[in-house]
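pasting for ref
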Amino acid sequence: MIMNRKQFIYNTILATTGLSMPFNSVDLNKKQKKLTILHTNDMHSHIFPFKSGKYKGLGGMAERASLIKSIRERNDNVLLLDAGDIFQGTPYFNFFGGELEFKLMSEMNYDAATLGNHDFDNGIKGFNDKLKYAKFSFINSNYDFSNTILNGKIKKFKIFKKDQIKIGVFGLGVELDGLVQKRLYGDTIYNDPIEVANEVSSKLKFDYDCDMIVCLSHLGLEYESDKVSDLKVAKNSSCIDLIIGGHTHSFLEKSIIVTNQINKKVIVSQAGYGGIKLGRLDFIFNKKNEIRKVISTLKDIKSLNFS
């Protein structure tokens, strides 16, 4: 039964013709450029829409693929990013160990993802064994994998270029001690996220001349304690433009704006969990590749009712 459904998913994604989903339209003049960033987080192996409960009929990989294809058909410059916890949550992960999730995300042409704590649930070896099925980059800047088999396989950052706009993307992961058994993450070393964020974002801005800097974070939106969160990273930064978050499963009606150390605005966004929503941010740039306007949208991913 699982193998049949697996084949169905592949066939659906390959044959999908797209959905007509209304999004905010943007009128550009000849001196402006637009970059569309689509984002997900905490998918937790939800391959199909939720069958019951509050989110019945929402989510699903085939549904997301169709929506993403529709957006790409109408927009030239699109980045598709994920903020971690791709694994763990349904029997598909227990059966396929992450292979299915990576293959389906590759079919959707994800550009990059960061690691969440649950992405270690099959251990570093389990993650490494399935990494060959991911045709997109994994990015993390504050985990040191030097003494593990993931050494050299996880990028510290990656630079994308869209219509002459340089976008630097880096990643931050939550402290694994206390969340993940030591035997699963092995000799992975956790480094302070705020220190790393400032170091890497500064390098991307000043050494690589990036026009925009994006942080893929699996730290969590905010806490009542002193624990490091997306909002704290944003507040203590100076070069980050956007933080795409995960871990706390936060459904934000709209992005949060945080003022950083040099009195500039940082956008923080998160799209819940389980693939229920697709986050979208449209950035408008002027001819100098400076951000002039941002439109934020979170869209439900609704069941297509395939039979």
